[in-house]
Design brief:
Blueprint lengths: L2 H55 L2
């Protein structure tokens, strides 16, 4: 392997690795957003259920 082949292989590998890292970071951001949405939904549902229970007890 000569220097040009080595350089080309190195640059291609680095490009691929950086692309994979960027993809992983985007997927992580999407997962964090989804976890936050789910947490908000659970909080809202919990509040609704608690309010319903309280209203049923007061009847």
């Amino acid at each position: 392997m000569n220097l040009q082949d080595f350089e080309s292989q190195y640059r291609n590998s680095m490009d691929e690795t950086l692309n994979e890292l960027q993809t992983a970071m985007l997927l992580l951001a999407q997962a964090q957003r989804k976890i936050s949405e789910i947490g908000n939904n659970v909080q809202n549902l919990s509040q609704i259920v608690e309010e319903f229970i309280a209203s049923q007890k007061s009847e």
